[in-house]
Structure formats: C-alpha cells, structure tokens
Amino acid sequence: MTIDDAEHYSPDERAAIIAAYPEHEREARARGVPVLGSGRIFPIAEELIACEPFRLPRYWPRIGALDFGWDHPSAAVELAWDTEADVVYISKAARASQQTPAMQVLALKPWGEWLPWAWPRDGRRETLEGAGTALARQYSAHGLNMLSGHARFADGSVSVEAGLMEMLDRMQSGRFKVFSSLLPWFEEFRLYHRKDGKVVKLRDDLMAATRYGVMMLREAVVDPAEFKSARRTTGQSDPLGAFR
After folding, report:
1. In the predicted model, what is the mean pLDDT of the chain?
2. Judgement on whether residues 93 and 155 belong to the same structural domain of the protein
3. 17 and 126: one domain?
4. Inter-axis angle of helices 205-215 and 160-172, to 10 degrees?
5. Domain range holding 15?
6. Number of folded domains in the chain?
7. pLDDT tens-digit profile of 67-103?
8. Is the pTM of this model over 0.85?
9. β partners of residue 76
10. Which of 35, 71, 117, 159 is surrounded by the fewest CB atoms within 10 Å?
C-alpha cells in the first residue's frame, strides 16, 4: 500500500505530506520504494515509464514471456514493440501461485493463441507434476505457442546483468513504457534490488518475465489478423475472390 491508496487524504494533502519528507526519502516513505543507496536495480522514477493504457496498433509486433513458479508465483507479461520509435510497452501482466500449466494456459490463451511465448532455461527441467515432461513442453501441450528454445540473446548468451542493463537503458532513454494499470508490475519494480551486489530473488517474478521478453524481442510477431485485414482492404479487383 502506498500513500496514493490512502483515499481519506485529498490529492493536495497527499502532496503536502510527501513534500514534507526530505527529498531523498520521499519515494521510500510515500511508496515503499527502497532508497537508491540500498541497491535498487532500476533507479528510475515511475512517472518516466508509466503510461495510460491505450489500444495497441495491431501492426505492432508482440511477444509474451513467462517466468515459471509454484510456491513463488508464476508470472506472465505481454510486450508490444513500436518498431518505428523502438519503444517497448508492457501491456499485460499476470501472476499466480500454485497453478498448474493447464490452469495458467487457460488464463493466457485469451491474450492471443498466435502470441509467441519466451521462457527461461528452467523450462527444460522435468517435474513430477508433469509426469517427467519438461515444463515448456507442458505449456505447449496445453496450447500455448512456446518458442522452440529458451530465452537468450542473439549471440546465445543468457546473462542476467546484460538483460537488466538492456531494460535500464531503455527506461533511461524513454524506450520502455508500462501501462499504469499494471499495479502488481509496479509493486515488484519498486522493491527490485541487490544485496551485497547480487540480485535479490524475492518478489521478482514479473521482473524476470519482462527480462526474458526483452531478451527475445526479435521473436515478436504481428497479429495474423492484421494481414487478413490488409488483404481485405487493398481495393484491388479480384474476379476469382468469390471462389477463394
């Protein structure tokens, strides 16, 4: 809960309370954001990456990304890529604990059965729950359009730090936006930090899924319905159209 959730204060009262804090403590006190000295991974003001939700152009390539979990949540995000401006938008996010692949696929297929899905290396591990079937194959068997290989950069590397730096570079340069309605995503964003130089693997599920999606952005595709629409609106005469 942040001060923005304290609806018994008016907007002016909330602003006055925040202004009374020392500047370097404001985000920590008002929104629970770790101070920068504690090792926050993305030292970026939320206002710089948050945007109001809007209807995405269908010609923008998209990709989904998964982080597997059981006791800690599984997480999924959708990334849409404005290729002309090279801006990535996080437009959907979901997180759930103790759900089988079958249940998660039911929730994710409405995002688009055509949507390709990036997944981490641990998706190759076999699990008792899946009767020895690797996790990624379980999701695929239930109808999710999983990519053929795990998330990695074009050169085959899987560096966590390289993925985080790619995200941070996009944030700092205005090429990474997140729909402001995705509150669980921002909760993780605020608390994502390092301790003793290492990334703290706690409540980082949506952050991890986002990193996999950024790594595999080259695999994003356009909704096939866009191509069908383009063919219908070309205006060219097709005397055999009635027979196609």
Report:
1. 85
2. yes
3. no
4. 90
5. 6-35
6. 2
7. 998 888 999 999 999 999 999 999 999 999 999 999 9
8. no
9. 66, 94
10. 71
